[in-house]
Amino acid sequence: MKATPLILTAFRTPEALADLYLADWDLLLRQARRGGLLSSLHALLAERGLLDKVPEQPRRHLDWSHAVFERHALAVQWEVTQIRRALEQTGIPVILLKGAAYVMSGLPTARGRIFSDIDILVPKETVNQVEAALMMQGWATTHHDAYDQHYYRTWMHELPPMQHVRRMTVLDVHHAILPETAAIHPDSAKLIKAATKLTQPGDLAVLAPADMVLHAACHLFHEGELDNGLRDLLDIDSLLRHFGATPSFWHDLTGRAAELELTRPLFYALRYAARLLQTPLPQATTAGLAGPNAALLALMDMLYTRALLPDHPSCSDHLSAIARQLLYLRANWLRMPPVLLARHLFHKAFLSPDKLRESDFEKMRANEAEGRTISRKFRK
User: What pTM, to 2 d.p., does this model score?
Assistant: First the structure.
């Protein structure tokens, strides 16, 4: 592996950024942008009182990212209000997950956190009623292929993503935190029962502290969505630092992990949060979690210490692409039994291949243009 990437240095010891040259700032901003962490970096520097030490050129980019985040946070609050209004007549308990939960709970984890959709958890038996209520208020399914509809509704832990026809916002309706076909099955009823009610708006809830950490760990280390892996690991780091200030939290966390069959995702979450972000952890907590055998653990270390970094050349080596591919295969292996997985992959590869949408080309062109703009500004 290469030397410690600047993005890790930034979040481990932000005070060290005061000594960076402009070329270093250029690289750091590129790494942060690739990892979806520009506004998070601004939030960290503001929290530590370090923004005034940032040179003018990178400071402009950080300030811009903060303005985007502020508008995003307001949009999330508005969208959550619309979801609540759409579902309030059903009387169904609705739990916000991940980014929306952090924002509406006012957690430190929400600072600078930008995400593309809102996730909610509802009891499985109410999914059809929830979907109908949302459709009445303008949300519609985004997957029209018959196979995709069957895939989500039969095997997965959520409905096909829904998008509002006017606002174009995306909503994921979950009835569990892992697919129906996965080998482990955290009891959704237990998650819902332990959820914490929000004061505003009062009929929505978020997961209990330990469950919130476990869901974040499960999402990153079981589902295998690594495009924003470092951002998701920073979520875990922030949640652990925040909730860990309560001494009983650590005992509750490990006990709850065992109860929900999530000990292994928690093991990996704690291991790589400590390794990459230097998250402080009680020794008793880490010692009490059983990990894989030594050979498998060495392999996982090789994979995750690469794949969790932003997908940028300065954060990668010759094994990084392989690591991401292997973890993608691992995630699919954990998601489905072998026969079903083979059938699914065959169908997606040969019968209904995904097509790159025009919006994807537009995003690519925008990213390239933005990169060129940064380079021009730094050369001035």
Answer: 0.88
Phi-psi region of 246 (alpha: psi -120 to 50; beta: other; left: phi over 0): beta
- DSSP per position, 324-371: HHHHHHHHHHHHS-HHHHHHHHHIIIIIS-----HHHHHHHHHHHHHH
Is the separation of the CB atoms in 65 and 28 below 8 Å? no
pLDDT digits (tens, 9 = 90+) for 203-261: 799 999 999 999 999 999 998 778 899 999 999 999 999 999 998 999 999 999 999 99
- Sign of the dihedral defined by the CA atoms of residues 323, 329, 332, 337, in that order: negative
The rounded distance, in Å, linking the Cα atoms of 135 and 126 is 14
Q: 258-264: long-range contacts at Cβ-Cβ below 8 A with a sequence spacing of 24 or more?
A: 259/190, 260/186, 260/187, 260/190, 260/191, 260/211, 260/214, 261/184, 261/185, 261/186, 262/184, 262/186, 262/214, 262/217, 262/218, 263/289, 263/290, 264/221, 264/291, 264/292
Q: Is the CB of residue 76 less than 8 Å from the CB of residue 99?
A: yes
For residues 43 and 111, what is the distance between their CA atoms, to the nearest angstrom? Answer: 6
The CATH class, in words, for 6-379 is alpha beta
Strands 117-121 and 170-174: parallel
CA pseudo-torsion sign 129, 130, 134, 135: negative
- Kindly state the tokens that stand for 129: 């009623």
- How far from each other are the two terminal CA atoms of the chain, in whole angstroms? 33
Domain ranges of the chain: 6-379
Task: Take residue 119 and report the two structure tokens written for it.
Answer: 């996730």
Task: Give the SS3 label for residue 195.
Answer: coil
Taking every pair of Cα atoms in the chain, the longest distance, rounded to a whole number of angstroms, is 60
Per DSSP, which regions of 55-169 are E strands?
94-97, 117-121, 139-141, 162-164
Enumerate residues 6+ apart whose C-beta is below 8 A from 369: none
At how many degrees (to 10) do helices 22-34 and 358-379 cross? 170
Backbone angles phi, psi at 164, to 5 degrees: -75, 135
**Which amino acid is present at 325?**
Q
What is 26-73 written as a DSSP string? HHHHHHHHHTT-HHHHHHHHHHTT-GGGS-HHHHHHHHHHHHHHHHHH
The encoded tokens of residue 334 equal: 């954990």
Q: What is the pLDDT of residues 136-172, one digit of tens each?
A: 999 999 877 787 787 788 888 999 999 999 999 999 9
